[in-house]
Amino acid sequence: MELSFEKEIGLLKLGAGQVFHGEGILAVTKALLQSGVSYIGGYQGSPVSNLLDVMVQAQHALDELGIHVEACTNESSAAAMLGASIMYPVRGAVTWKSIVGTNVAADALSNLSSPGVIGGVLIVVGEDYGEGASVIQERTHSFAMKSTMVLLDPRPDLPTVVRLTQKAFEISEASNMPCMMSLRIRLCHLRGSFVASDNRAAAVSTRHRLAGPASFNYEKLSHPPVTFLQERRKVEERLPAARRFILEQALNEVLPGEASRLGLIVQGGLSANLIRALQTMGLADAQGDPALPVLILNVVYPLVPEQIKDFCAGKEAVLVLEEGQPEYIEQEVATILHRSGSPCQVHGKDFLKLPGEYSTETLLRGLEPFAQHYAAQLGAAAAGQARAWFGQVQGWRQQAAQVLVQPIPARPPTFCVGCPERPVFSALKLVREQIGATHISTDIGCHAFATFPPFSFGNSILGYGMSMASAAAVAPLSQRRPLAIMGDGGFWHNGLLSGVASNLLNGGDGVLLIMKNGYTSATGTQELISSPDDMLKQVAGARSATDTETTIEDTLKGMGVRWLRTVHTYRVAQMKAALVEAFATPAQGLKVIVAEGECQLERQRRIRPQIAASLSRGERVVRTRFGVDEQVCSGDHACVRLSACPSLTIREARDPLKVDPVAWVTPDCVGCGLCGENAHAATLCPSFFKVEVIQHPGLADRLRDALRRLVLRWFGGRSEPVQVPA
Amino acid sequence: MSASPQAPAIRKILVLALGGEGGGTLTEWLVSAGLDSGWPIQATSIPGVAQRTGATSYYIECLPLVPAPGQTVPPMCLAPLPGDLDLIISSELLESARAIERGLADPRRTVMISSTARAFTVDERGGMADGRLPAQKLISALQEGSARVALFDMGQLAREQGTIVSAVMFGALAGAGVLPLTRAACEKAVAGGAADARAQASLRGFAAGFERAVALLAGAPGAPASDPIEPPRAGQRPEGLAQIRALGMARLVDYQDQAYAERYAARVDALARGEAAPHAASCEAARGLALWMSYEDIIRVADLKSRRSRFEQIRRDYKAGPGEPVIVRDFLKPGVEEIAAILPPRWASRLKDWGRRRQRVSFGEGVQLATSSVTGLLAMRLLASLRWLRPRSSRFIAEQALIERWLSALQCCQRADAGLAAAVAALPRLIKGYGSTHERGQGSFRHILEQLVEPGLASAGSPQAFVDLALRIREAQRVALAQPEGHELFRLLGMSPPAPREQTLHFTPPARRRP
């Protein structure tokens, strides 16, 4: 695992009255422990990976709580795990990244929600929407609506988040509905404080197990004919119970304001941005008290019609500030008011833009026409202040654009220095040059960075583990074999079944490239069933530990894959040859290349302490780094176009006659060897060299070195070529 | 809403870094120093996949006072509002300019502390020529767009102190005085209770950054943003034809011999006669000609790689300690083309024919030659001693012919139009690299010479036609340099691009479903 949570585990043990200072997602984790959960599960993904990771590492430290922690193989298995709370009075929480994880979990969620739960259930979803998002932009809201689950969207402030996390279990039990809590990226990473309470051990736990199974009760099965009854209960019993709870516990908040003829209704998660926007246009004071009433919906589903009607009573108009589309909340508010015959006008997406993240600036752009329209109630100054602000910012941006002349180029994420996946794409680029392009279906994972320059690979991305399946209809319709690229994470998430099994069942053709780096690296190097165990790692030492771990190969063979090659990723020429053979072989059927190379982050984490220990013991250690001979480099940068390693960059040539910058290897280089492999495989140039500095040399090293220096002095005496006085 | 003019102001700070630079650690230090002072403080970030070397940002809001009991703290926000920032601190110059481009800084209020270090984007690194954004433009954007600017190379400072850049950044942040944090509180946060070597290095980095920021921001607020640091400096470039000619001659003596250098000088002098001072086109042509005439063949590469000065430079660059042996392994893969290049024409064509028949472009898989070893060094010196072969070699003869052809075209251009001469003088910049890269570059050069320059000179009559021709040549060169592996140049010249090397691909339609 990428991060160590030693310090954070201490935070999870805080008792009543102690102050927690830490990250939002860990505050939620602490709140789960304060709520007496019996089990926790989930599937990793930014921004909620830390919840599960810290619990996996804290299991022993929190042993007295008897919580079962499961790192599930995908979100579907995580959601199904919640089935424990249908029949047993146990609280459970799972987590994943949304919208993608919720999509994968959807089947289990429907079957969970239909019978309902008796133990409180919380699904913590990382809402990957807007700036920094890495997934398709859709709303989790529709899942809550269609499966009748409570959906929380808390105000971004840690005490509120912790309170709502605990209330989530109560509302779930009060209504028998599963509860989801949507946390935006910045809230998950928010460093803040709250006053902790004691952790609570659950009545049923791994330390106090159930004596026997629940008695048979057909009404708890999501199977006809009871599904009709369950559907009626959702409407007649569960939703009203949830609404009662929301009102009684005051889960939503109302901020008063003097301009009481108007009002704002906002999702809890957006409320901080809203207050900042109001302050900017003079509609809130420095303390954040607004000039007009605001209803903050910490529970965005279900809405409470009485609360909406109360808030809108006597108002001329309200503005609903709701991120994403379709605008479910706005539509429901309008319906509630319409049915009650209220004259209050409902605004929302008529002023605010339909898609995208609602940053403070975006909110300002929607509030400005609202304030203009209702200038009689709000005063004319507000809209003018907003417009003045737009003008000012616009001016700064124009000025910058003028000075810069050209737009600043993007800096997308890329493979780490020393990443074992980069060489595969160097090889693939060479293959494309040699035999031409073919359809490439790509996938989710670090290898998706190959969709960015200088590689720019990929004709489709259909979801995690879906690359092989997404080429199922491309292969039979193409003259060239398509290539599907998949990480080992995606392979175990579902690629094995949706891709490989389906291809074998249908006697398909095509090439599958599996990146076997040993972990789900993009999400923080969590373990897989095929991760090398401690013994393999120990044996591997500084080498890649994934070459002796053959679970993936064994599985493929067992399923009937006949054309299977495992190639170490750093052997660029071999990888190129294997790919060309896979595309060109007359052999029928699925061809799988397992690109083996352990995640560099994990490998470095293992060997860095080993090297430090060796050095401190005075043992012989070889430090390896690559370099470019500046005099030999002609500055064509073909090497950069073939690798784009962050440590392979350019700098001013010291040769006064060379005007273009030459290639240069920065001190960040970890000596992975790709530069040399590429120089060979692509017959690039003779500029690359490898330097091995021997620390604490032995006697043989020193003797050999002395001889070398002597020979160098005799034969290597030529001076530098260009030494002309200015 | 109550009117409370004394409501305390929240301070807002944006930290810009690249993934893996320790921006998270910096944020943690800042939060813990703030908490230690009893202030309400919160911080957030968008790390996500940006941790994999992409651009990343951290945003901190803080109320620099200890709230009275019962005093409510105004709500804090999780993302910066354009213009509403007290301080932007950034480890990379382009990212600082990006913040200005997005309108995040208020030129009347925001203090900008930026490293002058550049981590070039893939776009900037990957071109055939020089795709870097000019540093001076980026610096101007910072100066125009912020109230006060402090610029220094944070990475350099961090390396000097043996620590990572986040320690220097935190020092600069504390030194900027935007937050009234005491230096002691910050140092306590950095040390984190540890007294190990790593903490010591962090503290040294912190101190270095602190002092630099204090010194650079010493001017009164509102004073014109001064830039006490020189922008990243270009290498010392020769000026004037005489200097370039001297450099070129020295290079070619080193490359071959005095006679060869004089041949160069004669070519340069012929060009100079065709142009009035300051000889702009001749300068560029003389520069390119010196590089072209010292093209890198096996002999030259072996010579450069086996010099004592090279090994001394490597020891310095790679920080080898006095008693630490250094082994240098060179990655060499001499192809058929490279061997043929140093053979006389008849032998060369036989070897190339053989290579074509056998479909071989290289011998074997390539070698890692330990040039630092006794045998490796002697082998390289032996190759280097073959320079007497060079004037009779096939490549030498071919290169001289192409050079003459280009020079004669250039001389025609000199007579026609100065702008046209300048465009043609710059063309050798296309010929770079080794192997297929060199082949493509030389191909581009030939195509432009044959399809544009020569026919253009033959047909154009009016001065305007020469101006147009120069424009088209420049555009063709730009396209060829920007997309070396692409086919844009072929489209521009109306030629059909070369077909990929064909290889039989077997593809069987899917079999019937298994019974």
Model description:
The complex is a heterodimer of chains A (726) and B (515). In chain A, helix 2 crosses helix 8 (158-175). Chain A has 26 helices and 26 strands. In chain A, strand 19 (519-520) and strand 20 (526-527) form a beta hairpin. In chain A, the strands form seven sheets. In chain A, strands 3-2-4-5-7-6-12 form a seven-stranded mixed sheet, with helices on both faces. The radius of gyration of chain A is 30 Å and the shape is globular. Chain A has 726 residues and is α/β, with parallel strands linked by helices. The two termini of chain A are 56 Å apart. By secondary structure, chain B is an alpha/beta fold. Chain B contains 21 helices and eight strands. In chain B, the strands form two sheets. A six-stranded mixed sheet of chain B has the order 2-3-1-4-5-6, sandwiched between helices. In chain B, strands 7-8 form a two-stranded antiparallel ribbon. In chain B, helix 2 (93-101) links the parallel strand 4 and strand 5 (111-115). The model of chain B is unreliable at 220-235 (pLDDT under 50). At the A-B interface, helix 9, strand 8, helix 11, helix 16 and helix 17 of A face helix 1, strand 2, helix 2, helix 3 and helix 4 of B. Strand 26 of chain A pairs antiparallel with strand 7 (326-332) of chain B, so a sheet runs across the interface.
